[in-house]
Write a structure and sequence with these properties.
The protein has 225 residues and is an all-beta fold. Among the domains are: 33-62, no CATH class; 89-158, no CATH class. The protein contains no helices and twelve strands. It has a six-stranded mixed beta sheet with strand order 5-6-7-8-9-10, with no helix packed on it.
Length: 225
C-alpha cells in the first residue's frame, strides 16, 4: 500500500498516519488506499472503490453491517429558486459507444414541485441515439403514477398519446387460468362505482372495443335511468 500524506513529501512502500491528513496539491496513489479501516478503500488491482468494505465487488460498493444504508444526494439550492426542470439530483446512465452518438440513455431523478423545495417527484427519462432524454414515468408528490404523462390525473394514469402508435394503452397477460384479469372491489350503492341494476335501464350510446386472444369484442356502454 502506498499513501500520500503531507505536502512536499513522498514515500514508497507501506505507510500509515495516525493524525489528520491535509493535501493541498496534487497527489497520486499507485496502489491500494485505505482510510480509517473500512471508511474508504480503493482497490487498485481491480479499479474498485469500497465504502464500508475493504473487499468491493463492484466499481462502487457501499456496505453497512445493518439495514438502512443510505446514499444521499443533497441540493443546497435555496431562496425559493428551484425549477421544475432542474432536478435536486439524478442518476444518469451514459453510453460513450464510438459506433454511435454518445449521450445519456436513461436518467432517474428527483424534481422539485414549485420553487421552494418542499416537495419532490420521482422521474424516469429515456433516450434513443442522440436525442435528449424524454420523460416516460413520474411518481408525483401525492402518490400518483403517470406513464407517458407529466401530470397524472389518477392513482395510475397511462397516456398513449401517439395517433400512429399502433399499440394498446394496456396489455394484460394472465397465465394463471383459474384467476381473473381484473378484480373490482368497492362499496355497492347508488351513485358509487358499483351499484345494483335494480329497476334501472341502460341506454346504449357507445361500444368499447377490447381484444381477447386476437379477437376484437365490443362491450355496450351508455347511460342508466
Amino acid at each position: 500500500m502506498t499513501t500520500l500524506y503531507r505536502p512536499a513529501t513522498s514515500s514508497s512502500g507501506d505507510s500509515s498516519i495516525a493524525g489528520d491528513l491535509v493535501v493541498t496539491g496534487d497527489g497520486t496513489v499507485t496502489q491500494d488506499l485505505t482510510i480509517d479501516t473500512t471508511t474508504l478503500f480503493v482497490d487498485s488491482a481491480n479499479d474498485r472503490v469500497g465504502v464500508g468494505t475493504i473487499t468491493p465487488s463492484a466499481l462502487l460498493d457501499v456496505s453497512q453491517a445493518t439495514d438502512g444504508a443510505t446514499i444521499r444526494i443533497t441540493s443546497l439550492q435555496n431562496n425559493s429558486a428551484h425549477s421544475s426542470s432542474a432536478p435536486y439530483g439524478k442518476l444518469e446512465f451514459y453510453s460513450a459507444d464510438a459506433s454511435g452518438p454518445a449521450g445519456p440513455r436513461v436518467e432517474v431523478g428527483c424534481y422539485p414541485v414549485g420553487t421552494n423545495g418542499s416537495s419532490g417527484e420521482f422521474v424516469v427519462k429515456t433516450a434513443s441515439g442522440s436525442a435528449t432524454p424524454t420523460e416516460r414515468m413520474r411518481l408525483d408528490q401525492t402518490g400518483r403514477l403517470g406513464l407517458n404523462v407529466t401530470e397524472p390525473l389518477a392513482l395510475m394514469h397511462v397516456d398513449q398519446n401517439s395517433p400512429t402508435g399502433a399499440i394498446p394503452v394496456l396489455y394484460l397477460d394472465q397465465a394463471d387460468v383459474s384467476e381473473e384479469f381484473i378484480r373490482f372491489a368497492a362499496t355497492e350503492a347508488t351513485g358509487n362505482a358499483i351499484e345494483d341494476v335494480g329497476a334501472k335501464t341502460l341506454t346504449t350510446t357507445k361500444f368499447v372495443r377490447v381484444n381477447v386472444n386476437g379477437t376484437d369484442l365490443y362491450f355496450q356502454a351508455g347511460t342508466i335511468a
